[in-house]
Structures are given as C-alpha cells and as structure tokens.
Specification:
elongated, homodimer, alpha/beta, Alpha-Beta Plaits, 12 helices, Aminopeptidase, nine-stranded mixed beta sheet, 2 domains, four-stranded antiparallel beta sheet
Chain lengths: 415, 415
Amino acid sequence: MDIDTQRLQRDIEANAEFGAISTDEGHGRTLLTGSDADERARNRFVERLEDAGLDVRVDAVGNVAGRWVSESADPNQAPVAAGSHLDSVPQGGIFDGPLGVYAALEAVRALQESDVDPDCPVEVVSFTEEEGARYGVGLLGSSIAAGLRPLEDALELTDDDGTSLETHLDSIGYRGSGHLDAGKWDAWLELHIEQGTTLEEAGTPIGVVDAVTGITNCRVEIEGKADHAGATPMIDRTDALAAASEFVLDVERAAHEVVALDSETAVATVGELSLAPNARNVVPGHISLSMDVRDVDYEAINELIHRSESSLARLDSERSVETSLARYRDQEPIHMSDRCVAAVRDAAVTSDLNHLDMHSAAMHDTANIASLTDAVLIFVPSEDGLSHNPHEFTSWDDCAAGARVLAGAITQLTT
Amino acid sequence: MDIDTQRLQRDIEANAEFGAISTDEGHGRTLLTGSDADERARNRFVERLEDAGLDVRVDAVGNVAGRWVSESADPNQAPVAAGSHLDSVPQGGIFDGPLGVYAALEAVRALQESDVDPDCPVEVVSFTEEEGARYGVGLLGSSIAAGLRPLEDALELTDDDGTSLETHLDSIGYRGSGHLDAGKWDAWLELHIEQGTTLEEAGTPIGVVDAVTGITNCRVEIEGKADHAGATPMIDRTDALAAASEFVLDVERAAHEVVALDSETAVATVGELSLAPNARNVVPGHISLSMDVRDVDYEAINELIHRSESSLARLDSERSVETSLARYRDQEPIHMSDRCVAAVRDAAVTSDLNHLDMHSAAMHDTANIASLTDAVLIFVPSEDGLSHNPHEFTSWDDCAAGARVLAGAITQLTT
C-alpha cells in the first residue's frame, strides 16, 4: 500500500494553521470546539474529503463523516470506519487527533490508488469535542455516536461563558442532522500518537493497542482535629496529615503488591491533596485527596480499592480519624476486538514494520465505539511522550507508517 | 490584696468597645495598631492611668507606660513593671492582651488601697503591635523596649497599603519620644490568657509559666518526577508525595521518641504542605512543606531537626528524590527568672489559689523582656483554649484571680 507521506504531512500542517499559537519552538494550536479556528479546520477537512470523492455528512452533534463507496463495494454493507478528532486542548499539539483523521483520509486515497477492491463502504470520521476542553466533557461526539449519552444533554452543555454547544455549532454551521450511528459500522480503527514513551523506548514504530485501561477515581476525606502546633502535646493529636501519609504509603504498597501478584499493568496514584487549615503552626485538621487507579484488569482495580478501604478502616481505628472514600468515577477496561487487532498486526507484518502489543492508559474515542462494534486503536511514537503540549512531535515517517498500517488493516477488514 | 473584680471587668469591657465587631455570640474586636480604634483605646488607657495617679509617657514606638511612685518608694530604684498589649488580631477576642494591661493597673490600684509600702516604683505598660497583624512583625514594641531591634526598622515597617508604622503613630498622636528601656526594670510580670486547655482541663485558675518554648521552623523541599498517572508503571515512579508521606511519619515518630526519652514537652508538626502539579492524573513531582518544632529544651529541638535531616537523607538514597531542609527560623527557649517564678507561686499560695507550673508554647512580649531582666508570665484559663477568636472567654473570677496573683507577686518583688 503506497502512502503519500508528503500529502499526509501537508494535510496535517495545513490543519495546524487553524488556531496556531506562536511558540519559540514547536507548532502548537488551540482549537476549541465551535471557535472560528474549528470552523475553518472543519471546512478544510470537508473540502479534502470531497476532493477525494467522499460524500460528506454532518450529524446533529457536529460529527463529520466522509463516505467512500468504491465500484466494488456493496453500498448496503456495513462500512468500516476510521478517524479521530480535530479539536485540541488549549496550547496543545498538532498531531493529537488530526493524525488519526487525516491518516484515515490518506488510507482511503491509498486504497483508491491501489488495486484493492473493498466490498463495503469506508468512512472517514472526525468526532466533535474529544478533549472536553470547552464544555468539560471529553469523548463527547463519540459518546453520541455510540448511543452512550442523549443528544440533548450534549447540546445543552455550556462553556465557561455559559454558551451552549448547540449555539456554537449553529454559529459555525456544523449543527447537522441525524445520528452518525457507530452501531451500524462493521469495524472502527483509530490511529493516534502514544502520549507515553513505550514505543519510543522500544524503538518500535507501531503499537497495537489491545485494551484501554479502566479508570477508577475516588475522593478520600480524612477528618482529624486541627490544634495549635505549639500547645498540643504529641499524645493528644489527631493529625489528619499523618493519617493521610499512612494512606498514601498503603496505596503505593498495595499497588506494588498487585503488580507483583495479580496484574503487572496496575497503577494507583494519589496525585492531588489539600490540607485544612494548611498553616505552619496548626496540626492539620482535614485532608481531602484524590486517588486514581487504572488497569486493563478490572479485578485488579477492585482489589486496589478494597485495600484502600481497608487502610482507611485501620486509620479510623488506630488514629481516631474519620474517613470516607467515594468512588465517583468507574470506567471498566475496554478490550479491542480480536479480529481488528489481528488485522492491524498482519498489516504491520505485511508492511515490514515492527510492532508491539500494548494497552492505552489514556482514554480515546475508540473506547466509546468499542462498546458496540469491533474496534482497534493503533499508536505511533510521540517524542519524549509529550502530548497536550506545543512540543508534541511525531516524525513524518512514523506518521506515514501509522497510515500504512491503518490502510493495510482497512484493506484486510474490507476484502 | 483586694482586687475589685467589677472595676477590672468594667475596664476590659469598656476597652472591648474599641474596634468591637458584631458576632452572633461572643464579644470580638479588631484593633489594629494605628487605627481609630487604637487611638480611642489608648486614650482611654491613658485616662485610666491618670485617674489612678500614674505619670504617663509614650516612647518613640508608641509603647505606653504609667509610673506609680508611692510615698514609700525611692524614685531612683529600678521599677517593677507589668502589663501586656492592647492590639488584637482581626476578629480577635477581648482578653488577649487587655487582661494583662488592665490587671496590671488593677494591681497598682489594689496596692494603693492596701497597706503595702513598695520601696520602688511600679510601672504599668502596654506594648505596641504585639500581634504583628498590621505590619507582619509580632512582639514589636517589646523588641524595641528590649533593644533587640533598631527603632528605625520598626518605624519603617509598612502595612498592606504601604503606610508605615511611623505615619500611623503620628496620625493617632502616639509617636512619643525616648526609649522605654526594659533593661532598667528590676522585674517584669505579664498576665495573659492561656491560649490552650491545660489549666481548664486541670481545673486550676493559675498557671505559673517557667519557660517559653523555643521554636524552629524549617522549609523542606522534595523533588521527584511528575509523570502521567496512567502511563507510568509503579516501578518507574519518583513520587514526591510518597516520599513526603514517609517524611511526615518519620517526623511524627521522632517526636514521640524524643518525648519518651529526652523531653516530654517536645512537639513537631508538619502543618502546611503543597504539591505540584497537584492534579488527579499526575504523579506528584514536587512537594514543599513546613515543619514547626518546639520545646523548652533546645537540645531536644536540635535532636528533632537532626532526625528530620536523617530521614531526608534516607529518602534521597532510597527513593531517588532530591531533598533540602532550610532552618529559616530558630528561636531558643526562654526561661523565666527563679525569683519571679517564686514570687508568683507564693502569691498564689497566699491567695489560696491552686496553681500549676507550666510552659508557654505561644510567644509573648515577656519572651523579649526576659532576655535582659528578670521576668515571669502568669496564665489564667481560656474557655476551650480559644484565642484569636470572638468567642475567646475567661471568667471574671479567673480574671480577678490572675490580677490578685499579679498584685501579690508585685508586692513580693517591691517590698
């Protein structure tokens, strides 16, 4: 399969002009859903789809799909779809999202220029508001496509100024109609930069993602007793920070044990913590902290939460604090379809590209789509693991390698 | 010695009107140095000193002293002085400071009405800016009286609006002249509310303070490595919060051991801690925390700092963090004079009042004065240990008991 590296590069670089931000180095952009930059990026994407002969439609939440029905294809067959998103975080990079969108288009162009005869349509898709940077809810367009959220809820979401997604989509002319229904797709593929260093460190251009880790978030409160740091003898203290310190170390120890015994990919993090009153001369009275637990094995996640709860119960008893743990977010791991994973592996082998089976610790639209159809995620290396950063960079050769594997996998799935 | 409880109560309640704040319960006040409220409080204090026949002078930093030379006294003898301060923290209470000032005046009035013949003058003193609430430096007036700070430095201190202490004192008419020199006093006594619950819990009205604890403050920095909470395996982390958690527990353990083995009054507190980046999904990269160590035994303080440094060295080695400890404040313990302590104890016994030998964990003007003359601090109970709070309360009987012991001790020291 011949990928035109320069054509792909031109598409991504042209897209990078929309919302471009000036930085000393790098090529950052800020592309928020519903902004002028978004309108221009979408307009160009639609043009490029139409240039390649695809039929474009925009659904009610602004998801854009270009459909290619080759002469060989039965238009009534379920299509194979591929893509990603065009929006970015504020001061983000130019690859996170657009690579997957334009590589999908490049894959279709490569198929058109090859002697492959797909027997079903192929769709190139860009989902609305993947980053959640404007309305606070990520993976939004794909959640509508997957039927995981009512359309009305999404359209009513507002940004910090109180303006709704619906108003923004109207204003840029991208509030379409109908429902891009991922349930009608035969398969879904997404190419994305890794946002980690696994591939870079392994010197491997292709990551075959067989699972997206589950994520559980908990809010932990620890109530002790605020007291004067000078006047309160050690024996009379109920120090919430000392209790929280034991908890942090218990969580760390539990994670290491679960890694050793149950699931080597498990991670647990206390990343955010606040004290009250947080004053030099006051024994801490209250701690609020967040815990983030992830793994591809849901049982391992549950084991870590269980051990965290046991730690808190021990602290209640041994340190006379009052603790609570609220598991406010619980997203089970998502496993990719064997058929799609095999297609990607085969495509890498056929293209003579080394590949690595891996999981994704970050969420992607694919996680939503995988809930109702066969799906797979493909990673390419990101320099220093950077993303959400103007210095995010993937070499054009790696971009092309990803597009080549994507095109190969689409070929396998459509023929 | 006859203390007029109602007269003392009227003085404290009248003083409480200046800067009074409305609260649901309690009788709070905000009396900042140089404010209108301060001017009126000082004017009334001067009137009350003059009503009692004392000669009033105001020194260059606004310290006010009323001098009583009884017929029996040699005016050339070094005086015995007593007092406290009239300023408050924002939304403070009515006893913290004014009790010591007006009880000293009440003690002089009681002496005048008794058959005691002091052989030296007695001075009633109110120090400027004890709380440090306006210019950020506490114990200010007493530090000038004790010669611990140049007058010019104090006058040049500015509040948040950039106005200097000198300007404020000028504007309220209390920038006097000369130097109230505590080095010329034979002895100094201060009555104060406890700001703790030791006396209340013991059911004892009088605390004889034989030492003010030393205080050491340290700033500890712990540098780890911020990493994605999902993408970074447990084994690859350099988690600054986990390291800080070990440190907090090491400090707590060391304090308990020092209490058990070396000095039962030692305390160590990590009261303030901040994380960077402090995000749910990021392994903490940097921790900054403060440590507060206090004791009446300076060697115990040094031992706790030494153990803290050992803990950090261990963490550098075992967790590959980079740590630093800066001991930015170091105030040695201050011991009261045996002669003054004995006078207070005797006065309590003579008045048939139970007393408790104790130390003060909070700083007071007396700590400055004790550096150059014999001094003692007397505590009375404060309900629930509250201070710096509109609900601060000491019963009028306890106020009078404190004034009675103060008058008795002054009698002992002047006859």
